[in-house]
């Protein structure tokens, strides 16, 4: 009897912040050599990720100065524009996927379609678009807007936006460009598929002025966990990034996603789900706990409170730091799912002080934090994966390059020995790489998920 094919865990490297995801990473010696505007730094991170057979590099983005702190203590105020950086990394990498964030609130479908089609060509079919609607009021100010549109309006625009972008990627038949020198025919006129879309939020007419992307459609990624965000991901996403700090929350999210898939009429298999995880690993639990404590001690209290305010969408710096945060706060138009997660922590732990809460959120911004020996961390990753709540993880290294190197040297070999991670890089474009994660079969074709 033939054995059932085994799924392969996906791992990505979330490398947006040059020094690492911990807010004090820039002060830590493990981030030595990091620089937010250095191509060589990001090229070295990409090389490490490819050495570890990771599936993709991921760059988040906020089109404004990241004002989660205004006292000069944050290293996240400057960085590089994601698509520009990934285009520079494309010829410096071989196999790894290149995922960039672009907001639907401050872009137009035609621009986004041609940008990602171009990246897909430059990378040989490794591009992916992380679809966001933006949750920072500062982003609206960057574009001269009086403020963010209402949450529901942002997602209504996003639904139309993605539909138009996908149509533009298909606005030429795949074999439209014959380039026949003898007949003088460069393309087949009948292969044009002009888009004609006039919606409430976006409109587009005509064809894309870039050839069809090598993948047909670059990989679509989504991360919102509110009701509208879930529906957007359930309808369009190939990958979904989630924040789940424990298995119970991960199961609840998976159930909510399954319900959203039924609501939009999507059949299984649905999007691949990857929670974010920050790993503080060492040879022993005691050593890992010491390292976590040392990093947290480097976070200035002002910075931690400012980060918490940013996550909540409400300024809490005036509240007493030695008392619990009130659960009744002014309404926010920002990131509703992260706000809900933080308020759930406050309700579940009524004696947790504001200072302790702010330090906890600063460490990984509501994502999973694993502190322990390399073996115990591996056990937890495998437990989550084999339980079916996720298809892998979006790695959020606390300190770069130190913690990415640690995962590649210590975690990846352990996952390989457990038989849940790749031992060689799959051939072909990123979409095929995702497909081959579903089973051990390597003969899957380059089609949409």
Layout: helices, strands, pairs:
Layout: E1 10-14, H1 39-51, E2 56-59, H2 82-89, E3 97-103, H3 109-122, E4 127-132, H4 137-142, H5 151-169, E5 195-198, E6 203-206, E7 219-222, H6 227-236, E8 239-242, H7 247-264, E9 272-282, H8 285-297, H9 301-312, H10 336-348, H11 354-364, E10 368-373, H12 374-387, E11 392-395, H13 402-417, H14 430-436
Parallel strand pairs: 1-2, 1-11, 2-3, 3-4, 4-7, 7-8, 8-9, 9-10, 9-11
Antiparallel strand pairs: 5-6
Helix pairs in contact: 3-5, 5-6, 6-7, 9-11, 12-13
**How would you classify the helix and strand content by structural class?**
alpha/beta
Major sheet summary line = 8 strands, parallel, barrel
The ordered H/E elements are: EHEHEHEHHEEEHEHEHHHHEHEHH
What level of helicity do the residues show?
A: 25-40%
Q: If you compute it from the alpha carbons, what radius of gyration comes out, rounded to the nearest whole angstrom?
A: 22 Å
Strand order of the largest sheet: 1-2-3-4-7-8-9-11
Poorly predicted tracts of residues: 1-5, 440-449
Briefly say what this structure is:
By secondary structure, this protein is an alpha/beta fold. Helix content is 39%, strand content 13%. It has helices at residues 39-51, 82-89, 109-122, 137-142, 151-169, 227-236, 247-264, 285-297, 301-312, 336-348, 354-364, 374-387, 402-417, 430-436; strands at residues 10-14, 56-59, 97-103, 127-132, 195-198, 203-206, 219-222, 239-242, 272-282, 368-373, 392-395.
Q: What this model shows, in words?
A:
It is a single chain. The protein has 449 residues and is α/β, with parallel strands linked by helices. Helices cover 39% and strands 13% of the residues. It is built from 14 helices and 11 strands. It has helices at residues 39-51, 82-89, 109-122, 137-142, 151-169, 227-236, 247-264, 285-297, 301-312, 336-348, 354-364, 374-387, 402-417, 430-436, and strands at 10-14, 56-59, 97-103, 127-132, 195-198, 203-206, 219-222, 239-242, 272-282, 368-373, 392-395. Strands 1-2-3-4-7-8-9-11 form an 8-stranded parallel β-barrel, surrounded by 8 helices. Helix 3 (109-122) packs across helix 5 (151-169) and helix 9 (301-312) packs across helix 11. The radius of gyration is 22 Å and the shape is globular. The chain starts with 9 loop residues before the first strand and ends in a 13-residue tail after the last helix. Mean pLDDT is 89; it is low at 1-5 and 440-449.
